[in-house]
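pasting for the record
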Amino acid sequence: MEFVTRFFQPPHSGSYFLFGPRGTGKSSWTQHQYPDALRIDLLDPPVFRTSSARPEQLRELVAGNPATRQVIIDEVQKIPDLLAVVHALIESKQKRQFILTGSSARKLKRSGTDLLAGRAVLRTLHPYLAAELGNRFDLARALRIGLVPLVVEAAEPDDVLASYSALYLREEVHAEGLVRNIGAFSRFLEAVSFSHAAPLNTSNVARECQVERKTVEGYLEILEDLLLAYRVPVFTRRAKRELAAHPKFYLFDAGVFRSLRPHGPLDRPQEIEGAALEGLVAQHLRAWIAYRREKQDLFYWRTRHGVEVDFILYGASGLFAIEVKNSARIRSEDLRGLQNFREDYPNSECFLLYRGRERRKIGEILCLPCDHFLAALRPDQPLWSKKRGS
C-alpha cells in the first residue's frame, strides 16, 4: 500500500514528542517527513543495548553528524535517561530539532522525567481518518478491522489484528513489568471490552475479572498510559438536569475493540456492531480535535433518567451534539436525546449519524449517513457545513 498522506501537522519549529499507540504510523510518518534525519530506533535490540549502557553516546552521534538538523528517537520511553541528554543538547543552542516518538508516557512519568521541562511540545498521532484514506475508506471494513495503519496495510489484516493485543501484552505490559499477574490483566482486557462505548463501572469490571476494584483502576491507568483506551466525561456545564456521574469508556480503535470483545451465541451481533460504530466515530472526533490544535473538548451527556447523547463537543468552534445509531432507519425515539439536549442548550448544533443513505433535517436536527460524515471530517475544516459531503 502506498504512503497515505496524514492530516497531522508538526510544530512549525522546535523539538516535540509524538505519541501514539503502536502501529499508528509514527515511524513511517517521520521517515517520510524527515528522510535525512539521524534516527535512533530503540526497538532495534543492538541500538537499545548500547543506548541503555551509555545514554551519553547520543552526544557523540549528534556531534558526528553536524549537517543533520533533525534527530529522531523512536520509542523514547524505552530509555528515559536519554531525555537528560536531549535536554542538554537543546540547551546548547545547536539548532537541532529532536522528534521523540513513543507509544507510552507511563515509564517516563514513573521515572520522574519532566518531558524536557516544556522544551518540547506534545503531539499525538491517531489511527487513519476516513478522509485520509479517501476512496479507499470502507465503513464496513473499518468496523471489522479498524483503522490502525499497521492492520489496514497488512496483507492479512485479520491475523495482524488478532495478534495486536498479544503484542502489547508481551512487549509492553509483561516485558516492562507493569503488572504482576499477566493472567489477571488478560482477563481484565476481555472484561473491560464489554464497557466499550458505555458508562464505565469499575466495580462491575472487577467482579467480572475477579480482582479488586483498586486493581482494575490501576489496570485502566495502564491502558490509558499505553494510549490504548480513554474516558469521556459527562458534559455538565450549566446543567439544568440531574446528570450521570460515570464517564464513558472507549478502546482507541474499533478493530482492536472487536478483537478483544468475546462473542458467541448469546451475543447479539448488532450490539457489538453498534458499539464498534460509536467507537469509530469517537476516534475520528478525537483525531479531529487533536489535529486542529484549538481548544475543543469531547464529552457525552446523560441524565439520571437515562436520556443520552453520545458526543458533545464544546470549545472555540461551538457546541455540537452528536448521536450515533447503527440503523438504516430513523425512528422518533432516536431523536429524543438530541431534542432534550437542545431544549437545555438551544444554541447547540445537533447531528444524528445513521447507516442510511439519505441526508435529512428533522426539526433542528441534521440527520447524516455516518460514512458521509466521517469521509468529510477534516481538521482544516469545520465539523460540518452544507457544502461538505455533497
